[in-house]
Amino acid sequence: MRASSIGSASCFTVDVVYDSSDFGQEPMHGIDAIRSAALALGDRNPVPHHVTNIVITPVDDDTASVRSKGLGVTSDGKIGSVTYLDTVARTQAGWHISQRHLQARQPLNGLGTKTEPSP
């Protein structure tokens, strides 16, 4: 996630929980924590970031479960993929991600072994 993409027009709620524990990181709580992490990554952030194969499953009138695939290319040309397991919530400003779990495609040096049930 590029630091420049985290701002007032963010796709996240202010109190978002961003869980990248499959990659050995502690879950982040709040948009400020995500912003700080993106800034700390600096040039290691993906240059382009694409989200595809989006499947939305309504939970109720104000909540939905979203599963998608993310692809990113780093500045040195490496490509990575991830599965996003999101909960989106209807806010006064529209639909925003309130919870995001990054699911590793395969175990990474012992990481990414936690499995999530299919929605």
Which key phrases capture this entry?
6 strands, mainly beta, 6-stranded mixed β-sheet, Nuclear Transport Factor 2, Chain: A
Describe the protein's topology.
Elements: E1 12-19, E2 28-29, H1 31-41, E3 49-60, E4 63-73, E5 79-91, E6 94-103
Using the 3D structure, state the CATH architecture: Roll
How many strands in all?
6
N-C termini distance: 25 Å
What does the overall shape look like?
globular
What is the CATH topology? Answer: Nuclear Transport Factor 2, Chain: A
Unreliable residue runs: none
How many domains, as an integer? Answer: 1
Specify the number of helices: 1
Structural class: mainly beta
Brief overview, please?
This protein is mainly beta.
